[in-house]
Input
Amino acid sequence: MTSIRLSGVTKRYGETEVITGLDLDIHSGEFLVFLGPSGCGKSTLLRMIAGLETVSDGQISIGDRQVNEQPPGKRGVAMVFQHYALYPHMTVYDNMAFGLRNTGVRAADVERRIGEAARMLELGPLLQRRPAQLSGGQRQRVAIGRAVVKEPHAFLFDEPLSNLDAALRTRTRLELARIHQRLHSTMVFVTHDQVEAMTLATRIVVMNRGRIEQIGEPLEIYKRPATRFVAGFIGSPAMNFIDVERAGENGGRLTVSLPFEGVRMPSAIAASGLPAGKLTLGVRAEHVLLDPQGPLVGRAEVIERLGDRSLAHVSMPNGQLLVAQLPPARDLEFKIGDTIRMNLDASHLHLFDETGKAWHGV
Ligand code: ADP
Output
């Protein structure tokens, strides 16, 4: 088990800075996920930890060793890629043994390690096959096995599930969670898929344009996003955003006015301390409540019935669409064109100032 520390890590390609002064402590034994949109710098960061990219500025330490100048093979980490890159002419066994034999691991140890990994990953019956005789999921399991047998200080995963079909992705995701529970190794995982991040991570690092937006446990990030970017990126459907104005306060809590025929609404957010300037209200679909006396009135444009829940996309008087989650017992009551009356759950509102910083209720 090993911790990894990044201090002021910066990466430039020529004039372009793609990672900017990034500080991060990855705890020993945690499953840390880098999450963010394509191009935000996740893979570059992982590849710098692995030693596959140079660091332009700053320091990377693995355990108590500074590794900036160390080649990948000396860092004690094992990387699993999106493309499994198995040797096609070798059996599964030899694919896993190859790196070990090359680094002088004794034959008896090679056999023991492969035996253990094969049991854990249920690869036993496949050990004498070649990659062409395996399904995509089996190949990815071999790629994970090849990392496991190295008994690394840390595992680095670069979108390892994105080439798998949906059902297999879910199964392999569970398998990874089980491997982590069994090995208690430090794991760093890159993905743009928030479901993968939410289900696998002990902590998520949400990245945007080469910087960290927020670090936190999955539910903390969902419930108390630090910025508007995080609020919009995490959660499906995406959070509703509404431009609002200050309309006074009640018991120290801000009242806002919404652009829907002057509707005013209390919030649980402290009025003092909010900076001047424009404010945006954020509310998730599950906190837009059906309410026959509610002040918000709109027309159902689309109703998405997803099985476990239904979502109404409601057109408001100013043309904006609000997404409301319908309670399970009532989702068949509504059809397209119906008038829907709603309220917002005052205790679950978020406010974002002009800089994008979030202000939550207390
Ligand atoms: P992500 O993994 O989040 O999709 P990457 O780390 O692959 O993002 O890329 C981050 C940024 O760095 C992108 O804007 C990408 O175009 C740029 N980039 C990556 N590799 C190179 C390279 N070899 N030369 C120049 N720019 C690069």
